[in-house]
Amino acid sequence: MIPIFKNTVKEHQDSFPDIITTILVAPNQHVESFISQAALDWPASLILVPGGSPQMKYNSFSASDVALCTSGTAAMELQLARLPCVVAYRAHLLTEWFIRYKAKVSYISLPNILLHSPVIPEALFHDCTPSILAMLLRRLILDESIRQKQMVGAEKVVELLRLPERRMYSSSAQLDSTCGHFTPSMIAASTILFSTRTKDDDCKI
């Protein structure tokens, strides 16, 4: 995705000539080497942030206006940090076919799945191009109503996370006091299962 993101930044040069970008670098030697190589001819000012440092990661969230991320728990983290974002995702044609026609999911990012609504703009598969991503980011930067929609969505996501989180901690306390730590992805997965079951129960009524 880095080449696509690099060209997306290049698309922004005319509209936002003073843009400063940050990349969270996963604590992996291969990833660090790949990102460092890509940074050599990055089209804008660039700050590399060690992704293994939670404090530095959330400091970079606080200092940013918008974010561009691949689908996964990153979108959930950005929502919880109240940082408006755009989700990008590319995959093999067979994977795209399976997701579109077999999995039958309307959205691919966790917040959108939880809310059953495209609160976060998604550029997926053949639509994941620098020009489309640049357009979505430009709208997010310039249109306060779109940013506000994500902030409202973030509050709803927090509310949805609370009940499954309490249930998970309650269950672990009954089983073993040492199992009381859950990652955001575990809580999100529990929430999706809970909301899906609730939706199915509503359909049966």
TrEMBL record:
Its EC number is 2.4.1.182. The keyword Oxidoreductase does not apply. InterPro entries: Glyco_trans_19. SUPFAM superfamilies: UDP-Glycosyltransferase/glycogen phosphorylase. GO terms for cellular component: membrane. Signal peptide: none annotated. Keywords: Glycosyltransferase, Lipid A biosynthesis, Lipid biosynthesis, Lipid metabolism, Transferase. Transmembrane segments: none annotated. It catalyses: a lipid X + a UDP-2-N,3-O-bis[(3R)-3-hydroxyacyl]-alpha-D-glucosamine = a lipid A disaccharide + UDP + H(+). The keyword Lipid biosynthesis applies. GO terms for molecular function: lipid-A-disaccharide synthase activity; phospholipid binding. GO terms for biological process: lipid A biosynthetic process. This is lipid-A-disaccharide synthase. It comes from Cuscuta campestris.
